[in-house]
Amino acid sequence: MISGLAALIGGLCCLTPIVLVLLGLASVAAAADLGNILYGNYRWAFRIVALAFVAAALVVYFRKRGICTLDQARRERNRILNTLLVVLVASVGAYIFWTYVAVHYWGIAAGLPWAQYDESWALPVAAAVLTAAVVLYRVLLRRPRKRTSSLDAGRGPLA
Known about the structure:
The chain is mainly α. Helix content is 73%, strand content 0%. The termini are far apart.
């Protein structure tokens, strides 16, 4: 959830012109010019705001899980770092997919002149990064289930 919202915020530089065209609030030419300005001059501002959102969301996430002091954070350092790594990798993958695949092709469908940009790299890169996020999640964050057997319960094997 955190990663998806960060991708949405980071990709607003490219989504805004599409929304303006679809709502009839701007012509295709004006929206394309706005998209060039937002993406060309302010893309890092959108990315920084998205990272700030991720940081704030992670603070709220850990506070809800009882990590409120620096001592608690030190004790849970590995969990915090693992979660941070998974969220950042997933956010980057979601941002690449959202901005360079979904929004790019929506822009083309809305009539924006974005077909001139070659974004063929984006789908395989987004797939690789999102796959890495899933693997990291399974390796770093997913807790193994405890198996109980009759031996663990204090009973004999034939009880």
